[in-house]
Amino acid sequence: MTLPPKPPSRPDRVSLWRYLKLFRADILSAQPAKLYRAWMAEFKTPFFQSYLINDHTLIKRVLHERPDDFPKSDRIGAGLRPLLGNSVFLTNGDVWKRQRRIIDPAFEGGRLRDTFPAIWASGEAAVARLAPHADGQPFEIESETSHAAADVIFRTLFSIPIENETATKVFHEFKAYQRTQPILNLAAFVRGPSWMPRFFRKDTKQAAKSIRALITTLTQDRLNQIKNGPVPDDLATKIMTTADPETGEKFDVPEMVDQVAIFFLAGHETSASALAWTLYLLAMYPEWQNKIAAEAAEITQDFSKLSTLKQTRDVFREGLRLYPPVPMMVRESTKPEEFRGRNIKVGAQVVVSPWHLHRQSRLWDNPDGFDPTRWATENGKKCQREAYLPFSSGPRVCTGAGFAMIEGVVLLAQLVRAYRFEIVEERVPVPVAHLTVRSKDGIWLRITPRSEEL
User: Fold this and answer.
1) Pairing of strands 342-344, 337-339
2) Mean pLDDT lowest for which of 103-117, 303-317, 335-349?
């Protein structure tokens, strides 16, 4: 049976400069095949020393037991600061803890139920937008999953659809930003003072500036609404009216702009990636697509019915395993450490790679295969606990993880209920890592209306 697409691995030995060039272009194909079976790998450069860890005990130490000793590295974050500022995605220590105390309540318990109607409406809009393309001709589906995910963010955050003028402008500016922003820039390799030039492209800086200006307008308008009268009970209102329980402080406008920028980046970019790859997997395995369509046939705009979408959830979970939107997470050691008998110096980069961990051949049964039934097996249950990190883990687990699972399952059910998706044989997607795991030349599918019999 044909396996889902996987990028080629580089040879075990390449020159440093060849590696850096490959890494800047795509961090997935820049890695050797041995990382899919290694418990740990060391890589040295003149600029830094890094360790990729696939050992559960080490991952637990870094992400769960001592997260303050392994803060987020700024080598990746430096390239995103023009857009994300001082957002929760980039901060560490007390600043990060304060931000999470304000943000987390917006995503707790009943708040997910409150956002469900907006997610459902976004799914209905996505189904309608696909109708003109359901003619059996090749269609690039990532463009639509990006549109749908952006729609979800604006409806749940600011109670406006993607068709809103400002929302549309943010969406289009973000597409421009994606095209110009590499995963790494000079700051990722060379440590320097804050005044050191980061050599961002002019169009990257301009796109980030435009996005932040538009978000500032949305944020200031909402703050005025909060002060002057009735206001939508959405995520923006919840976050902007929540005070830090320890200090009593709330986010000011610049701080809120930083957070909205990462909500849009994380909530839109990652969801779009996950949904597109899962649709491709269902096109590869039509028997599973038919199961999802049948399961979704009776689903309605009733939050309690989500529990019936068990196979849809397992399929989406398997899509996140094979194509985790965030392929690597980088931490930095602040104390001397010992990993598997090796001395780790202060300042070393510690890489937790969901991409490799989710395909670790010594952990997973059939690691490169698509098998949604694995989650009911002993191996699948064990790996889900110890080797499955689509949303990170520990205190820094994505605050929107529950939200993302609901969004992915609902949109997947709505789309597959309405349409049949088929692969385009001559266009096999090649996974690459930019801001998230996307396809090098898009994900192309043939779409036709599903028969009424299901």
Assistant:
1) antiparallel
2) 103-117
